[in-house]
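Re: that chain you flagged

S.,

Sorry for the slow reply, it's been a week of failed gels. I finally had a moment to sit down with the sequence you sent. For the record, here it is as I used it:
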Amino acid sequence: MMNVRKKIWPKTIADGLSMFFILTIIPLIYWFELWVVLPNLYEPGAVAYMIHFVIGNFIMINIVGNLTYTILIDTSTRPLIMSISKAKAKEGWRFCASCEAVSPPRSWHCQTCGVCILKRDHHCIFTGCCIGHFNHRYFLMFVFYLFLATAYAFYYNNKFIWSRISFEFPLSIIKIIFPLAIFVFGFDDSWDQFYLMLYIVSVVGMCFTGALLVYHLLLVFSGHVAHEKDKKINKYDMGWKQNIKEALGEKWYIVWLFPYIKSDLLHNGLNWNVSPLWKDSAKNR
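Prediction finished late last night. Pasting the structure tokens below so you have them in one place:
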């Protein structure tokens, strides 16, 4: 059963501003794509229009669902504190002075969240919480669908934007580089400039989420979290397919379809299988 975080509000100004941006820009881009761009390119009610409308809503449901689970799921050591307190000290277990409790392997303390996180990967300012064992799947799918949405929109936005805006040097360059400033300060407060601003945001989002997705998928394939990759800790690399299962759960092959598909994780966050290759190398040291 999923443990829900009791305090989901951002704890820092950076977290708050980043979360506000995400929670504002996602519905704004959704509106722009399906209620502005799509009707401009296809006749409402036409087959092509309906296909793209359904795909757009499918992507949006996955973005919102995975973001919600990422934020709400408690992936800290708090819900398992009784199990941890009764656990015998083993290799990899250590005492966390901040939590004043024993912390299991792959768990690290987050100063922002104020607690140890199971299989902690990183603290995400856009969700205002840490990404760890129990919400890792949802974070990965959230980033995946953000990239899919922005890449999908990029193709059609090009047709829409450049059919409305004529390129004039150097004014067009300035509008592209500083779209928000041009709009907010009234240099060009037209709808076309507002649309251009959303277009630029989606392009930047596509590049950012694309790079983020590749980075985190490589971590999953190699059986690492960010800290382990930096420290070159390879003991949990069980092979790429098993590594995917450990991150996405037993139904790893279909979790990308819908955030509400149940996929039980292979571990409880306390105990981890160690690579046989690492064991052999450790014996030979």
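What I noticed first: The chain has a mean pLDDT of 88.

Talk soon,
D.
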